[in-house]
Specification:
The chain has 69 residues and is mainly alpha-helical. The chain has three helices and no strands. It has a domain of 27 residues. The chain is 70% helix and 0% strand.
């Protein structure tokens, strides 16, 4: 049961990471757009916060599975 929950969390974490908008890319490294203020609202904020919570849950489940084996 724990493995199934871990796989579900991993799938949602992967999905939420792929859905996030990346404001700076490789062009910003070589002198592209300098300063940019990012305000997260609505769905973007939900995805951002959920990614953090899902990554914490993924880490906790990994440690728990390691401990129980």
């Amino acid at each position: 049961m724990l493995v199934i929950i871990h796989v579900i969390v991993a799938l949602f974490l992967s999905l939420f990471i792929l859905l996030q908008h990346r404001a700076s890319g490789l062009s910003a490294t070589f002198g592209g757009s300098g300063a940019m203020v990012v305000q997260r609202r609505g769905a973007e904020r939900f995805i951002y916060l959920s990614t953090g919570w899902l990554s914490g849950a993924f880490f906790a489940l990994s440690i728990l599975q390691w401990y129980l084996r």
